[in-house]
Amino acid sequence: MGQVCSGSAVSKHVHAPRDPEDKELDEIEMKETKIEDFDSFFERAAAPVNQLVELHNSIAQSEDNLKSAAAAIQGEAQVRVLVSGSGRVDTQMWAFDEKEEEHVFSVDEVNTKLSTSTCLREAFERVQVAQDQLHAALELPSNKTPTKFISKRGRLFVTRKGAQDQLVREVNVALFTFRKELMKQSHGSRLSDAVKIFLKELSKVHDIDALDVTADEETGAVKIMNGDEELDLKKMDKLSKPVAQLRDAIADLLENLETAGQSVPELASQSSDLATEAQELPSKIPDAVMSSGLSITDTPKAASATASNISALSNGPKIAKATAQMIAYAGREVTEAVRMPRGA
Fold it and tell me: The whole model's pTM is what?
């Protein structure tokens, strides 16, 4: 039997589903009701939910980057995403060479790497298709509201919404699967595996025999301790470039866990309260339509948009719970790695 690849096959259409292992969430979007008070409320109510999405995604991206950096220690290729001034996206494969310099793969080297796995090649082709679709849309003469985006954490990050938002998402969805297939080559899929690799490398140049982990019971955030003091990852020296990259990825994850842990409870409460308040709006639609100077024929559209927005807002508590679970999971993985004997 042939390989069964995760994620979607190469598609010429947008709205491709995410890879089953892709933890990233899409922001919720509020539909316009044309009732000023309603639209103002929905904009305000969506804010804490999307802040939760951002926190959730920052952890997911940090986890992926950490595992990718750990794979690089084992000699695996990495993926870099570049964005030109015109919005063209270039995906490069690269690796550290023997002198710890960054070597960008040539076309022949890329093809050689892709030949090692059917799933890897399919994932790469999906990235190329998604990028081509984005480029074609950006270059249309009719494109009056282009999406603006940058490269951030190895993905595309929208800085100004526009007509290509969905196409940007498709590139990110494809990039996740491509990176995942690359990481499979190093046979390390768990977060704890990546942390263990870092600590093994760190122990070669620093005394870390007294390592332990402390966890904040309220937020779930974790700190790596070396004796009585917190391990200051950013100040560690004598690290090779690949290990320093892995160190930076762990530091980024821990910072995001702390930020999320401190912010999630309040955002969860806000989003829950606003979702409850939103439930009162449907009964107010007839009067709101009249007082807004809209036609009675606008009532069905306003009702439909309101119902859609209420449904989207109801996801706030679910996202908060999912983020709390991610914090707890990452904490367990880091704790397991730190407390495991270094030779294990």
Answer: 0.88
